[in-house]
Specification:
- This protein has a 4-stranded antiparallel sheet. Strands 30, 31, 33 and 34 form a 4-stranded antiparallel sheet that branches. The protein has a 3-stranded mixed sheet with strand order 4-3-10, covered by helices on one side.
- The radius of gyration is 40 Å and the shape is extended.
- It starts with a helix and ends with a strand.
- About 30% of the residues lie in helices and about 30% in strands.
- With about 575 residues, the protein is α+β, with helices and mostly antiparallel strands.
């Protein structure tokens, strides 16, 4: 009986031991082996959830530590995460778990030095492509298309250049191979594979186009207008030639207005008149704050666009002939289209004080009379010199004070720069695009420093572009000791401006001058630099949409001794 009891006891103990043994095996299987380190973090005896929490910072660090790269002579860096690389923690840890009932395995799990851990990673292809695109955007050295341009009436060529680009399909794999999570960051950059990219416009394309242009200039084009035939000479063709770059080459074209002027001159030289009467724009004015349009007349003559089209077709044929009809030419501005131009409110206004010099005031009255009622349609560029120049006696201008050679002197048209300054500021505060202007070399105190302009026929101009979708009507006059320019249209922007403190001062000198009509000056003034910022705001919104910084350096106003 005792033996049977002892047997049952032994059996029970054995069963319990086996149960305990199995429990320990399962328990150890749910935990990482002793001594296990992942990404440098000790995760011994931790469950998967515990290890995931413990490794979060290390994973974050490994995925966001930048990898230096080089390509096409450029240096950059990209993080594994940006490149679509990530650590697959589940795949990394899974082999280290699982119940074991081998005594040696159990002992090693409990007391061992940990299993070798291979870090599993994965690649997000979309993210890798995006990273490649960001890196590729840093390549700024090609490819460069060749250029064919007209410079002073001659064809000039700029040779093409090959470029380099990354191989998108290789970037992810190269970074994947180079990335070693948990290892010390390498100072040696990964040299990413690139491929040479030829330009779309090659030397062969340029040479072929140059031959086409030279052939177009080789002989005149014979243009028949009604019963008369006139020649557009090679010189006229060359002067009217336009070259437009395309993605794969160039397009030859002609400036129709230039061709029309050449044709009218050819007709005049042949004693033929009346091949056209230019249209007359309607006159626009602001009366009691309202737009009033009067007059305007349709013209007749040669349609510049049609002439350009026919000439281009003719240079490609052996006969080189074109037939042009006299057609109606509508004015730019009519009584009918005036209400659609968007001229409804005062957009900007600027005034400058005039001096006591009567000849100078006369010049300002003359130029103001030309500027007044000028209309600038959307997309057009206004030139003060083209509109009001040349500033000669024949145009009604008188001699008055000017700046010549850095000293004050006298010349015909003196004072028109005040219109340049006033016009520039009116366009400035209308938010219109500044195409061309240059401040005076010497500072003139009646003008805002850094925000003024000088004028010289054929050399220095004030140009602005109407970069809005509504027309601009200019009003200008001299009254009450001031020259004023107003811009009427549709207000698109609120404009603010700031002017810096003066800096970079330079002391005046004493100079001797033989300039004609030299005016002596016994008191000099220091030169200086200044910065002007123009800010565009949406109407009623203080936030700045964009800014433009202009800097200028004035020469010192030297003391002048006039020599005979």
């Amino acid at each position: 009986m005792l033996g049977r009891i002892l047997g049952w006891v032994s059996a029970s103990v054995l069963v319990l031991a086996l149960i305990a043994y199995g429990f320990v095996g399962v328990w150890l299987g749910d935990r990482l082996p002793q001594g296990t380190r992942v990404l440098g973090v000790d995760v011994s005896q931790q469950t998967y959830d515990e290890a995931s929490v413990a490794l979060a910072s290390a994973v974050e660090r490994a995925e966001t530590t930048a990898i230096p790269v080089t390509f096409a002579g450029h240096s950059a860096s990209v993080t594994p995460r940006e490149a679509g690389l990530s650590i697959d923690l589940e795949t990394t840890l899974a082999p280290l778990f699982g119940a074991t009932f081998m005594p040696q395995d159990m002992w090693e799990r409990y007391r061992g030095e940990g299993a070798a851990v291979s870090i599993a990673t994965s690649v997000d292809t979309s993210a890798a492509e995006a990273a490649t695109a960001r890196l590729a955007a840093q390549i700024t050295d090609g490819p460069v298309n060749g250029k064919v341009e007209l410079v002073d009436g001659a064809l000039t060529q700029t040779p093409p250049a090959n470029g380099e680009s990354l191989l998108p399909e290789r970037v992810a794999s190269q970074l994947h191979v180079a990335w070693q999570p948990g290892a010390a960051a390498s100072a040696t950059p990964v040299a990413l594979d690139t491929m040479e990219r030829p330009p779309a416009v090659t030397q062969a394309v340029m040479d072929a186009f140059a031959e086409q242009v030279e052939a177009a200039w080789a002989q005149p084009v014979h243009v028949t207008v009604e019963e008369h035939t006139f020649d557009l000479t090679p010189e006229a063709l060359k002067a009217a030639t336009t070259i437009t770059p395309t993605e794969t080459g160039f397009t030859l074209g002609y400036n129709g207005e230039s061709l029309r002027e050449a044709l009218v001159k050819a007709a005049s030289d042949a004693g033929v008149s009346g091949i056209g009467v230019p249209p007359v724009d309607a006159t626009l004015d602001i009366v009691d704050g309202q737009l009033v349009a009067t007059g305007g007349k349709e013209g007749t003559g040669i349609d510049p666009a049609l002439l350009a089209q026919q000439t281009l077709a003719a240079v490609g044929t052996p006969e080189r002939t074109a037939a042009i009809e006299i057609t109606p030419l509508p004015p730019r501005v009519t009584e009918q289209n005036a209400p659609t131009l968007g001229i409804k409110e005062l957009v900007s206004s600027f005034s400058t004080n005039i001096t006591a010099d009567s000849d100078r005031t006369h010049n300002l009255e003359t130029v103001a009379g030309v500027i007044d009622q000028q209309v600038v349609l959307p997309g057009e560029t206004f030139s003060m010199n083209d509109t009001a120049g040349p500033y000669s006696r024949e145009q009604g201008y008188r001699a008055a004070g000017i700046i010549s050679g850095g000293v004050f002197s006298e010349g015909v048209g003196g004072g028109v720069s005040q219109m340049g300054t006033t016009l520039y500021n009116a366009a400035f505060f209308a938010g219109l695009e500044d195409v061309e202007h240059r401040p005076h070399t010497l500072y003139i105190s009646r003008y805002p420093e850094g925000r003024e302009a000088t004028i010289s026929s054929g050399q220095l101009d004030v140009k602005f572009k109407n970069d809005t979708d509504t027309a601009i009507l200019m009003k200008s006059w001299v009254a009450n000791g001031k020259l004023t320019v107003e811009m009427w249209g549709t207000k698109h922007w609120d404009i603010t401006t700031t002017t810096s403190e003066r800096y970079n001062f330079r002391a005046p000198r004493t100079v001797e001058s033989r300039v004609a009509n030299c005016q002596p000056n016994s008191v000099g003034m220091s030169g200086f630099s200044v910065d002007v910022v123009r800010n565009w705001h949406k109407i009623g919104d203080p936030a700045v949409v964009r800014s433009e910084k202009l800097s200028w350096t004035y020469d010192p106003t030297d003391r002048v001794r006039c020599l005979d």
